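Appendix C reproduces, verbatim, an entry submitted by the partner laboratory led by Prof. M.T., so that reviewers can inspect both the input and the predicted structure.
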Amino acid sequence: QVQLVESGGGLVQPGGSLRLSCAVSGSGLGAEIMGWYRQAPGKQRELVATSTPGGNTRYADSVKGRFIISRDNAKNTVYLQMNSLKPEDTAVYYCNSRLLGTFPFFEDYWGQGTQVTVSS
């Protein structure tokens, strides 16, 4: 029932910036852990950033200092601001919603993904 739709991907040169958006429906952001993941060709899907309902954030070491995850609960939207992009950031980026139930149960919901290509 939870649906997520990513947008904002595209082609950008190294050192450039992009902002990804994830529109969430079916559940408010106040009760979910939101995350961004990415998957490059031939590689496993990896965690990029997470944001808790209380606003705490965590980042993969590879993107610390460059990416910022944020949420607007009123708009039911999560953002990923990507700065100083590198070719190795090229991947399909997926928005994730982790709906928590009674510990230890939870459900993960995924968007369709948006392509980010960093190339000169």
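The first strand starts at residue 3 and ends at 7. Additional entries are available on request from the coordinating office.
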